[in-house]
């Protein structure tokens, strides 16, 4: 069974001038697959992600995660935004365990897991730091550790590295590759950066604007494990040229 099944999905935002944000979207995401949604600003990438997250409801069509229709947000679908919305008065540890604590889980059920997720995201030495004491990249790591600690099998990432400087962005892409290969989560990753999509994803869906549609599906024919050096290879550049051509069309 696919982790995410989307069929003939459309979304129109109502209003005096309704916005037809998505039209006739078909998409299947396998368990453990890394999918990138790539397209220009306004093509509906965030709308699609918000529908999968359950923040919005489709106007038409079907959307299932693990076979069940999505009716509302849930802990099995963790969302990482461009800015990690951390509680500024809580330290890293308390931010990361906030979800399981609020869900009333006993410490024994989440503590060891939270420590492991903090280790995987390189935060073990920073558990007592407040968000204000961390860089943007470190705050995003906390955001990722938090959804991993929640136990979400599906990670929905909306330009999570879009606000970071170029160097930090590369470090975070490497971190995400390593987290993904260790934990085999299903990831839907929104970006308008072609390099980022090729480096990270198994499959890239290219979207066009107004109304947002999927124009092309690309299987990234690059073996894993992947590293940043890939981005200067011939196969990478050929694929990048192809995608740029398709986006221009
Ligand atoms: N809540 C809303 N109400 C009305 N229109 C909306 C709403 N959210 C998004 N839209 C519109 O839907 C269209 C798609 O927006 P969306 O944010 O999904 O695109 P995007 O591809 O993620 O863009 P960006 O890369 O700039 O974030 C845009 O025209 C946007 O203005």
UniProtKB/TrEMBL annotation:
Gene3D superfamilies: P-loop containing nucleotide triphosphate hydrolases
Similarity-based family: Belongs to the ABC transporter superfamily.
InterPro entries recorded: AAA+_ATPase (IPR003593), ABC_transporter-like_ATP-bd (IPR003439), ABC_transporter-like_CS (IPR017871), ABC_transporter_ATP-bind (IPR050166), P-loop_NTPase (IPR027417)
Entry's Gene Ontology molecular function annotations: ATP binding; ATP hydrolysis activity
Source domain of life: Bacteria
Source organism of the structure: Verticiella sediminum
Lineage: Bacteria, Pseudomonadati, Pseudomonadota, Betaproteobacteria, Burkholderiales
Domain ABC transporter: 4-234
Record protein name field: ABC transporter ATP-binding protein
Transmembrane residue ranges: none
SMART domains attached to this UniProt entry: AAA
């Amino acid at each position: 069974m696919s982790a995410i099944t989307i069929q003939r999905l459309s979304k129109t935002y109502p209003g005096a001038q309704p916005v037809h944000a998505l039209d006739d979207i078909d998409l299947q995401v396998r368990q453990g697959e890394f999918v990138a949604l790539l397209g220009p600003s306004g093509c509906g990438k965030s709308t699609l992600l918000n529908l999968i997250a359950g923040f919005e409801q489709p106007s038409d069509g079907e959307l299932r995660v693990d076979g069940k229709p999505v009716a509302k947000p849930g802990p099995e679908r963790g969302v990482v935004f461009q800015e990690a919305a951390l509680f500024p008065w809580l330290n890293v540890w308390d931010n990361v365990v906030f979800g399981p604590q609020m869900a009333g889980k006993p410490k024994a059920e989440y503590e060891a897991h939270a420590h492991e997720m903090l280790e995987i995201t390189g935060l073990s030495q920073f558990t007592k730091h407040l968000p204000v004491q961390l860089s943007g990249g470190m705050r995003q790591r906390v955001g990722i550790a938090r959804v991993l600690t929640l136990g979400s099998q599906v990670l929905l990432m909306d330009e999570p590295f879009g606000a970071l400087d170029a160097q930090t962005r590369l470090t975070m892409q490497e971190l995400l590759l390593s987290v993904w290969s260790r934990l085999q989560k299903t990831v839907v990753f929104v970006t308008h950066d072609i390099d980022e999509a090729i480096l990270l994803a198994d499959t890239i869906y290219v979207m066009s604007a107004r109304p947002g549609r999927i124009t092309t599906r690309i299987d990234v024919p690059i073996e894993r494990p992947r590293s940043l050096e890939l981005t200067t290879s011939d196969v990478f550049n050929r694929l990048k040229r192809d995608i740029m051509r398709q986006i221009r069309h």
